[in-house]
Design a protein that fits this description.
387 residues; alpha/beta; Arginase, Chain A; 2 domains; four-stranded antiparallel β-sheet; 12 helices
Length: 387
């Protein structure tokens, strides 16, 4: 496949605005498609911009986001001996949104086929749906983490594309195993959407939980395949370049922490950043924050531990908890390399053709809950998903 059929180089005018910059800057260490196409096989991480905002009319102007983010990203200082990043340029808006979606699909499928990690710079937030569709035929089951201030499953007349989560859930063929939604704000969410989300045993965590328990986001992202990050999840004061902002939301440092957790995830292969509208930004604060999110995400990738519990491995400690009033046992594993935790969840014998146990990422708090003779909520939700 010739990816240049779908991609256009980063504009020379963008590069001219970057000067002067440090010799240690990202621009001097990444391979950026300006004159010649990068050696994509030699790079672990790909960046691609999608200059299309037609899916959500209220986010008009988001098509300019990729280059605005690059202006801040490539000024940042690289701290890695070899920055294995290739910027493949931009997917320009096609004659229709479906043309743009097809181009994104082809680029992402190539990245997944080559086992690369791809960062998608939007563009309107409905592109999350097309990011998801790229995994069709590639992943048997997919785990999605969505960071947004809203859980919107019902389509509002005239704004159907904003209910992109609903389109993902209803998509056929269905290869979605789980959705984890972080930092939603209840007053933006219809009660029916929240009930539906809960009935499907998906995981939803309010803004208050995330900000008070930021470290609990790590196991939620640890086995995710893709992450979509909507600017609306970040408070307006920290990210003014958005049209649906709120005085409440994630602080900038919390957003960066979540991005780093996404990078550290052994399984995550794509990150989408959507909903940034440059023409309403103030002193490029939102672009600077998104650039820093990418910086932290890539730093997380460089710190992946690849520590998944394996049989007879000496890199893990095993803990077995038996509940007082039953013979039921929960088995926990703690990595000696990273101090991260997993727990076993058995496949339901009467409902599943699969045998053995499923390992779900968890935290020390889940272990403490089991020690207090309570079944962790994470264990129960995983069990019901396996039915």
């Amino acid at each position: 496949m010739n990816l240049t059929d779908f991609l256009r180089p980063v504009s020379q005018s963008v590069v001219e605005q970057l000067a002067p910059f440090s010799p240690r800057s990202w621009y001097n260490h990444a391979q950026v498609y300006v004159n010649s196409f990068p050696d994509i096989d030699a790079c672990r991480i790909w960046i691609v911009g999608v200059k299309d905002d037609r899916g959500i009319t209220s986010q008009a102007g988001a098509a300019a986001a990729p280059d605005a983010i690059r202006l801040q990203l490539y000024r940042l200082i690289n701290h890695h001996e070899h920055l294995s990043v290739a910027d493949l340029g931009n997917i320009e808006a096609g004659e229709s949104l479906s043309d743009t979606a097809f181009a994104l699909n082809q680029v992402m499928k190539e990245a997944l086929h080559k086992k690369k990690i791809i960062i998608v710079l939007g563009g309107a937030s409905d592109l999350t749906y097309y990011q998801y569709r790229a995994y069709e035929g590639v992943s048997r089951t997919l785990r999605l983490v969505n960071v947004d201030s809203r859980i919107q499953l019902s389509a509002v007349e005239g704004a159907e594309e904003e209910a992109y989560l609903n389109r993902i859930i209803l998509h056929e063929p269905n290869f979605l195993f789980n959705v984890t939604h972080l930092a939603y704000q209840t007053y933006f969410c219809e009660e029916e959407s929240l009930h539906t989300f809960n009935r499907m045993n998906f995981d939803a965590f309010r803004l208050g939980f995330v900000t008070k328990n930021i470290e609990e986001c790590e196991p939620l992202l640890r086995d995710a395949d893709m992450c979509s990050f909507n600017m609306a999840a970040i408070r307006m004061g920290d990210a003014p370049g958005q049209v649906s902002g709120s005085p409440n939301g994630l602080f900038g440092d919390e957003a960066c922490q979540i991005a780093r957790y996404a990078g550290v995830s052994n399984e995550l292969s794509s990150l989408g950043l959507f909903g940034y509208v440059p023409h309403v930004d103030v002193q490029q604060q939102s672009a600077k924050l998104l650039a820093q999110l990418i910086w932290y995400f890539v730093d997380g990738v460089y710190n992946r531990k690849n520590d998944y519990p394996a049989a007879e491995s000496s890199d893990f400690q095993t803990y077995r908890i038996t509940f007082n009033n039953s013979s039921h046992e929960v088995v926990f594993y703690k990595s000696l390399k990273s101090d991260r935790w997993w727990m076993e969840v058995p496949y339901p014998v009467e409902k599943s053709s699969r045998k053995g146990r499923y390992l779900v990422p968890c935290s020390y708090k889940d272990y403490e809950t089991a020690c207090n003779d309570e079944v962790p909520d994470r264990w129960l939700k995983t069990y019901y998903k396996l039915i």
